[in-house]
Amino acid sequence: MKRKLSILFVLLTGLVCLVGFIFAQDGFDIKLSNQTKYKISGLYVTFEHISSPIQIPSLAPGEEYSLNVDPAQLSTEDFDEAALLLKYKDHTGKTHTEYIIGYFEKGYSGEASITIKSVRPNGKLEMDIHENTSL
pTM of the full predicted structure? Predict the structure, then answer.
């Protein structure tokens, strides 16, 4: 009986590990939410050594957009560590940078939510950013 329980325990543990491996998250899941009454456009996500910045489609008022940023697939060979950034230009052409994830390396994963709360008269966006990363 003890032997059967031990075998069952090993099999269940292996199954749990296999399911965890299959559903393991690659990269970062990013969710943007436009809670303003204005259409938001010109946003892009980038990091050092990315092959090309990721353009975010225009967001209508109340619209949400989700994307996955996988540095392993999007980076050049020189990539080692970086910060994940959201960039855009205001009405005067000044580029603004918001940190989505302050630091990550190869193999990191996680999620972030970006809520655009308001737009200043000059076009600067007021937003809340919450992130959670892991190895």
Answer: 0.79
The rounded distance, in Å, linking the Cα atoms of 72 and 64 is: 25
Residues paired with residue 128 on neighbouring β-strands, in sequence order? 115
If you search the block for the tokens 């008269």, which residue do you land on? 121
Q: What is the mean pLDDT of residues 101-128?
A: 95
pLDDT of residue 34: 98
- Condensed to tens digits (0 to 9), the pLDDT of residues 16-60 reads 544 444 445 589 999 999 999 999 999 999 999 998 999 999 999
* Separation between Cα atoms, residue 53 and residue 56, nearest integer Å: 10
Q: How many residues does the chain have?
A: 135
Q: How far apart are CA 72 and CA 42, in angstroms?
A: 25
**Residues near 52 by beta carbon (within 8 Å), at least 6 away in sequence:** none
**Within the chain, what is the greatest distance between any pair of CA atoms?**
76
Structure tokens at 39: 């259409």
Reference 49, options 31, 12, 27, 76; nearest CA is 76
By C-alpha distance, which of 130, 119, 123 is closest to 36?
Answer: 119
For residue 1, CA distances in Å to 4, 5, 7, 11, 97 come to 5, 6, 10, 15, 62
